[in-house]
Amino acid sequence: MKNKRLTVLVLLTLLLATILVPVLSGCNNNVIVLKVYNAQDYIQHGEEESVLRDFEKYYLEKTGQKVRIQYDTFDTLERAYTIINKREADYDVMCPSDYIIEKMKKNDLLVELDKNKIPNLSNIPPYLLDRNFDRGNKYSVPYMWGTVGIMYNADKVSEEDLNNWNLLWNEKYKNKILMKDSIRDSVFIATIYAYRKELEEFAKTATPEEYRDKISDLTNNITEDKIAKVEKELRKQYDILYAYEVDSGKDSMINGEAYVNLAWSGDAVWAIEEALANGINLDYYIPEEGSNVWFDNWVIPKYSKNVDIAHEFINFMCDPDIALRNMDETGYTTAVISPDIIDYMTDEEVDANDFTYLFEDKDGNVSAENLALIKYYNDEYGIDFYALQIPELTMPSTDSAERLVEMTDFGEKQDIVVKMWTRVKALPLGLEVKIFSVCLLIAIIAIIAYSIYKKVEKKKLVAGKIEQLDNGTQTPTNNTFKTYSLKAKEYVVKIKYKLFNNKHNDKQTDSENNDKTE
């Protein structure tokens, strides 16, 4: 009896151990999936090197918890927003642009950040923080930033056609111009172009701040009159475009298929370098009328299931070494500043420019702390922010920055903008119109030719059948043809009868006429 009880006790102990050991000592064997949502080609994630895989290793070493990143990409920000808003997708980290962040914030789709968990935020200069779309950075942390300008083929585009937005509407380059398939970017640029004469007059007396405010008001405060004017310009442009594109424009420029491209600065950096291998000389400029300065920031969407790990991921992305790797991979300018990053951006062949605006707050002031930081960079690393040799393509100079404004969400006016955009894109593009017209003409000619052919063949067939029946050489092979043959014979008999009667009547008439004459 005792042995039996002992056996039962041992079995219960083993069963309990089987249950508790994984729970108590192996709970971290469970893998947490961190869902990251980002634009295409916008992070270092290759077979050999990947900041995503490095984060998984980093987090395991720091916490003992295994994390696997599920990395998904979107093609347009508007579609990404819809997925988060309508489908309630549970992404943990997302990287939208400024105006989408503003829209997500308005619609309660973001988690407020705990900045104590993001100490690397200190690596980002004041100019990139506390922007209009997210005051105090309550919901977002900068990742990349840059400008919108024109990338062009320097061997194909005349120098006198440069420096302004007119190039995107220049018929000299018909079917060689690319436009962004992005409502916000295209409408922004088209608005500046539509009001170019007004801006030119205003710039003669306005201060830089007044001019920026003017551009911001024109491009962000949409009215139906403005939309009508913008639609008119976009329709004019539509007939000379090669294509609308989001990401494929870089390849079209590199291959020489297109000569002009509305481009984000980071895409231009990458394309200019790649094009050299094909012997194509590409360049980029920010039009003199002014343009957009954009910011892509990390946010934590409302439906995130791993908020703490998301904070850790954002902080990891703000590490200078990780930021430099992402910049090197994508061509886009990181929001992080460090001696190595400044050295990476420096090009001794360009003129020196003042970049101290990076340390200005939203009111244009540089704090004593940031003045000390500027001095520290100069003393310790020989980096003089008053005279850095950084290409404007990589980072806008002070002069250019004075003409750059942010995009804001259209809000309730979004519907009229979307309807206008749909109308503009409803027709084939300029090159497609030609192809479509030629194909349509060929199709019409082919239909007419086929119809004539069928009629001729039908007449030949009928004539042949009649001749065969008349000669008695055709033998009907079925009831249908028998009926046809009989009708044909009757038709022939009738014709012969009519001919005979006509001849007989003619002879009779002649005879009567002869009698009368006599």
Structural write-up:
The chain has a domain at 475-517. By secondary structure, it is α/β, with parallel strands linked by helices. Helix 5 (183-194) packs across helix 7, helix 5 (183-194) packs across helix 8 (224-238) and helix 8 (224-238) packs parallel to helix 16 (414-424). Residues 17-27 and 507-518 have low confidence and may be disordered. Helix 2 links the parallel strand 1 (31-39) and strand 2. The radius of gyration is 38 Å and the shape is globular. Strands 4, 5, 6, 7, 8, 9, 10 and 11 form an eight-stranded mixed β-sheet that branches. The chain has a three-stranded parallel β-sheet with strand order 2-1-3. Helix content is 50%, strand content 12%. It is built from 18 helices and eleven strands. 32% of the residues are buried.
Low-confidence stretches: 17-27, 507-518
Tell how many strands the DSSP assignment holds: 11
Structure class? alpha/beta
Order of helices and strands: HEHEHEHEEHHHHEHEHEEHHEHHHEHHH
Shape: globular
Radius of gyration, Cα only, in angstroms?
Answer: 38 Å
How many helix segments?
A: 18
The helical percent reads 40-55%
> Mind summarizing the main beta sheet?
8 strands, mixed
Overall pLDDT, averaged? 87
**Proportion in β-strands:** 5-15%
Cα separation of the termini: 158 Å
Task: Spell out the key features of this protein.
eight-stranded mixed β-sheet, 518 residues, 50% helix, disordered C terminus, alpha/beta, 18 helices, three-stranded parallel β-sheet
